[in-house]
Structures are given as C-alpha cells and as structure tokens.
Amino acid sequence: MNEHPTTDGEPQPAGPATVSGSSRYGRRALLSVAAAAGAGVAVSLAGGTAPAEAASRDNGGPVLLGEANTATAGTTITNADGGAFAGNTSANGGHSGVHGNDTSTAGGYGVAGSSTHGFGVAGDSTNGTGVQGTTSGPGGIGVAGIDNSGEDLSSGVTGTSTIGFGVSGNCPNGVAIYGESANGYAVYATAPGGTGLLVQGPSVFQGTTKFSNSGFATVKKNDKSVKVKLAGVTVANIVLATLQTLQPGVAVAAAVPDAGSFTITLTGSVPADTNVGWFVIG
After folding, report:
1. Residue 41: pLDDT band with limits 50, 70, 90
2. Does residue 273 register a pLDDT over 90?
3. In this predicted model, which residue has the larger pLDDT, 251 or 171?
4. Higher pLDDT among residues 280 and 135, named by residue
5. Burial of 114 (C-beta count, 10 Å sphere; 0-12/13-18/19+)
6. Which of 7, 37, 135, 188 shows the smallest number of beta carbons within 10 Å?
7. What is the per-residue pLDDT across 79-97, written as a single tens digit (0 to 9) for each?
8. Lowest-pLDDT range of 57-71, 144-158, 163-177, 189-203
9. d(CA 230, CA 280)
10. How far apart are CA 225 and CA 266, in angstroms?
11. CA dist 188 to 59, 179, 230, 259, Å?
12. 3-class secondary structure for the chain?
C-alpha cells in the first residue's frame, strides 16, 4: 500500500489524485500529467482551475500562460518542421497577437526577426496594416530599413503593390517621405513601362537639378543649324533651346523634334562656334 507523508511527519494512506481542491481525475489523466511533467511542460487539467506546474518557477521552469513569467536567462523555442511560435488574438480593442517591449537604455529591440533567405519580420493584413511603426519621441523613427550588403540592387526598405501604393507616406504638416544619402540617391524611382515619379501639386527643387534629357549642342562657325541625336525622342516631344553665347543679331529660330533626334536652327549663321542649350519635354 502506497503511503504519503503528512505535514506532521506521520505517513498516511495514499488517497485519490486531486487537482484544484476536490476535482478527481482517472488514471489516464494522471499519466498524462506525469508525462507532461517529465517533458518540462506546464499543463492544466480539463475542468481544473489551477495549472499543474512541472518544475520550479525559477529559471529553467515552465512558462505559464496567463501569468507573469520572469527570468534572467533567455528562452529559446526551436521547431525544425514548422513555426517555432505563433501568437493569436481575437479580442477587440487594439490587442496584439505578439507584443514585444524593450525598456533598456542602450537601445534594444521590442521584436527582432532574422532570416537567412526569407523575411526577418513579415506582416500581413486583409483590411488593416501589415506592419506599423510608431514613434512618439523627438528624433525617433517609426520604421527603419537598413541595408549593409553593399550591393547595388539591395534595399533597406522595399514596398510592393499590385494596384495601390508600394510605399505610402502621410504627414499633414511635415515631410511624408524623407530620403537622405551622402553620395548616392536619397530617393530613386524607376518604372520601365510606367511613370517613375508622379507629382500632383506645386513642386520645390532646391539646389542644382540635373536632367538626362537636357544638354547643349554646338553650332559650328558659319553654320546656322545643328542636329542632335537622342534616343527616345519622337515628333510628339517639345524641345526648348537657347543660345549659351551672345551673338548679335542671331537667335534660335526653331527646335524641331524627329524620331530619335531633333534639329536646332538659328536665324542666321554664327561667326564662331556657338553652344546652344536644349531641354526635351514629354
């Protein structure tokens, strides 16, 4: 006959297994609890009101759901066949499936993701926001993308959209999207079959502005015209031209576009080589 010690040291006959007061469970349930305890898992028997702990609450003990868990060592969950951890919530009111919070003064990560060939952090939403970054302090950054690969085609932040906006910025009084680069391009836009950059409303350009469809051509001495070859030019383009050297009595008479070129004609021949600036629009 099995005996269990009591608080006063006198052995007592073993009674039926109980969890959470008077709730009774059969032999099969007890074996399940024992197996879970051997694996280091915290379980709660069906119908009970308190979890059955398989180990101490100190470091190395189980993680108990619904309770605060504190440790000084990191916790690692590894799954070779599927996702290591999943967090879900169906509650209303701004709750999170997974919430990470960093309160260190050195600057850590609330949530960190790393991937060798996939996505470090992926966000997906049917009607809401896949990934949201919020900052409330001066100089903070809601979402930051950093590329340290040194490759031309790599990106710190990439936005992709089938119909809508790949990257969207909204700021009522400040700067919606800000880009900064010491030696490269702060913002780069390309669209092989569409429009690289669409601007609606007034635009402000500060500093020197360069256009690949602009330049200058030279009208040779005693000539009055010059033909400029430029890929992509059609008869539908507009060509603006102006003399870069003052020649009394001589001006630009016309700048006529053609397929792959345009011709600048002056009102008279020039006494010396004369540069003419041009700009193709459209």
Report:
1. very low
2. yes
3. 251
4. 280
5. exposed
6. 7
7. 878 777 777 777 777 777 7
8. 57-71
9. 10
10. 6
11. 50, 9, 23, 28
12. CCEEECCCCCEEECCCCEECCCEECCHHHHHHHHHHHHCCCCECCCCCCCCECCCCCCCCCCCCCCCCCCCCCCCCCCCCCCCCCCCCCCCCCCCCCCCCCCCCCCCCCCCCCCCCCCCCCCCCCCCCCCCCCCCCCCCCCCCCCCCCCCCCCCCCCCCCCCCCCCCCCCCCCCCCCCCCCCCCCCCCCCCCCCCCCCCCCCCCCCCCCCCCCEEEEEECCCCCEEEEECCCCCCCCEEEEEECCCCCCCCEEEEEEECCEEEEEECCCCCCCEEEEEEEEC
Report yes or no on whether pTM surpasses 0.70: no
Question: Quick one: pLDDT band at residue 36, thresholds 50, 70, 90?
Answer: very low
- CB of 244 closer than 8 Å to CB of 276: yes
Nearest Cα neighbor of 44 from 69, 27, 25, 71 is: 25
Which of 59-68, 100-109, 134-143, 263-272 shows the lowest mean pLDDT across its residues?
A: 59-68
User: What's the rounded Cα separation, in Å, for the pair 228 and 42?
Assistant: 80
Residue 124 has pLDDT above 70, yes or no: yes
> CA-to-CA distance for 18 and 38, rounded, in angstroms?
19
Q: How far is CA 203 from CA 197, 198, 266, 279, in A?
A: 12, 11, 33, 19
Token output for 20: 């959470």
Q: Is 10 exposed, middle or buried (0-12, 13-18, 19+ CB in 10 A)?
A: exposed
The two tokens of residue 32 are: 């399940």
Structural tokens at position 177: 């999207």
